Fold this protein.
Amino acid sequence: MNVLIGDIGNTLIKICVIEINSFKILKTIYLNTNKIFSKNFLKKALKKIFKKKTIYRVALFSSVVPKYQKILENFLKKEYAIKLREIKEKNIKKIVKINIKNKNQVGSDRIANAVGVYKWYKSNCIVLDFGTATTFDVVTKNGIYNGGIIAPGVNLSLKSLVSAADQIPVFSITKQKKIIGKNTLEALRSGFYWGYSGLINNIILKIEKETKKKYKIIFTGGYADLFKKSIRRSFTVDRNITIKGIIEIFKENKEQLK
């Protein structure tokens, strides 16, 4: 039997099919959130997942967008009799301790990341997630989530600049060898590439200085590979760390998810 595990973000929804005994990821699909309002799109996108497969009747997701969660929740219930549950509804205290004043302000994706790095890396970790926002989350080897930093996302910043400035062309970010651009495109790419490189290096340095600890650095999300040559510290790219965290939460709550 398989189970659906997923992460609902502002831009993308990631859905994984997990084998329920080995917890191995069998299949992953990505849905653009601006398309999920179409029932036909959801039927077509999820058709391959459900074809000739026995799916557990409860799915577990992290979600930072309630309206998208509701759409998917209603679809899964109506079409497949599957109940979608959000990770904040489940017992997380036995896995990680959320060491901040208002726990409700921590996004579910960040909680899942914290659980994932704690369970998989067994070290003091900083997990950097390149999503709609660029987030840094600090997790100790003892399973304490100590909070983090939220910076503007790379794509969000890029789109905002292009839409706000009349003379700025649409462009993509690429690795830059030189800091000084010789034309507008080179200058833009340099600004974003070296700007975010500086942001990442500086925040990691300041976290370590403030906490007086060294950390294992985990990158995830769309731009995780882009900064390989410009980050001073060694890091590990783990694109499934959010899903791994949700799987660990599923394991802890499996008996209640029936």
